[in-house]
Write a structure and sequence with these properties.
- By secondary structure, this protein is mostly beta strands.
- The protein has a 15-stranded mixed barrel.
- The longest helix has 8 residues.
- The protein is globular.
- The relative contact order is 0.17.
- About 5% of the residues have low confidence.
Length: about 240
C-alpha cells in the first residue's frame, strides 16, 4: 500500500478507473461514423524534476476540453496539484490533499476565466488498505455526493470489483453503479459495468506495446426507448 496521500484526483481513483476508465469518452464533438465514436488520448508525465515534483500533459481528440497541463508536488504528508486547460479561455485548477498511512482528506477548486466564476469547489476523503479502498467526495459545487468502494480480488490478474453510489441534491436523484474487471492474459483486460438507471457497459483493452493501448467499448441504455448502442474506439499513448 502506498503510504503517501498522493494528489486529490487519487481519491476514489481505483473505483472510478474500473467503472469509467477508457470507456467511451463523452464529448461535445464526436468523430462519428454510424454508431462509432473514435478518439485519441495522449498522456506524458515527467517525474522527479526535483524530488517530489512532476509535470503532466494530457491531450485528447476530439474532446479538446480535456487538454491540460498540470504540475504536481507530493511528499509523505501532503500533495498539491495546479493545472491549466489548453483552450482559448482556460480553466485554472488547484487541489490539495493531506494524510498519513491509510487515511487522506483533500479539496479542489477551479476557476473559469471565460465567465470569471468559480467553476468547481469540492472536497473528499479516502480510506485505503491492501484489501479495500473507500472514499466519499462532494463535487459540482456541493450538488453531487459520491461514495466509492473498490475491492481487489486477485491482484496478479488485476481482478477486482467496484461500486459507486451517487446522489444529486438539486434533482434528488440517486444512482448505483457496479463494475468488475479481469485480465484474461497479460496484455488483455476486460471490464463490465451496470447502473441502476439501466446503463450497461463493456470494454476490452489490449496493450499493444508497454505504452500503447487500444480500447474497444460498448454502452447501451436498456431503459432508452430507442435502445441505441454506442461503440467506442480509443487509442491511448502513455510514454
Amino acid at each position: 500500500m502506498n503510504k503517501q496521500p498522493g494528489i486529490y484526483s487519487d481519491i476514489g481513483k481505483n473505483a472510478t478507473d474500473l467503472l469509467y476508465g477508457d470507456y467511451i469518452r463523452q464529448s461535445p464533438i464526436h468523430n462519428r461514423a454510424s454508431l462509432l465514436d473514435c478518439g485519441l488520448y495522449f498522456k506524458c508525465q515527467v517525474n522527479d524534476i526535483v524530488p517530489g515534483l512532476s509535470t503532466l500533459v494530457k491531450l485528447s481528440v476530439p474532446d479538446q476540453r480535456s487538454n491540460k497541463v498540470e504540475v504536481q508536488y507530493m511528499n509523505n504528508y501532503f500533495g498539491v496539484a495546479t493545472g491549466i486547460s489548453l483552450e482559448k479561455s482556460p480553466l485554472l485548477s488547484l487541489s490539495g490533499v493531506t494524510g498519513i498511512g491509510f487515511f487522506s482528506i483533500g479539496t479542489e477548486i477551479s476557476f473559469d476565466t471565460a465567465t470569471k466564476t468559480l467553476a468547481e469547489c469540492g472536497g473528499g476523503l479516502s480510506f485505503d488498505t491492501d484489501i479495500l479502498s473507500a472514499s466519499l467526495t462532494l463535487s459540482d459545487n456541493a450538488d453531487t455526493l459520491r461514495a466509492h468502494c473498490y475491492r481487489p480480488i486477485l491482484p496478479l490478474t488485476s481482478t477486482g470489483v467496484a461500486a459507486e453510489l451517487t446522489h444529486r441534491f438539486v434533482s434528488n436523484q440517486t444512482t448505483l453503479a457496479l463494475g468488475a474487471q479481469h485480465c484474461l492474459c497479460p496484455f488483455m483486460l476486460i471490464k463490465a459495468r451496470v447502473t441502476s438507471d439501466g446503463s450497461l457497459g463493456a470494454l476490452v483493452q489490449n496493450n499493444i506495446f508497454s505504452s500503447l493501448s487500444l480500447s474497444i467499448g460498448a454502452e447501451l441504455n436498456a431503459m432508452d426507448a430507442a435502445n441505441t448502442a454506442k461503440l467506442g474506439l480509443t487509442l491511448a499513448f502513455n510514454p
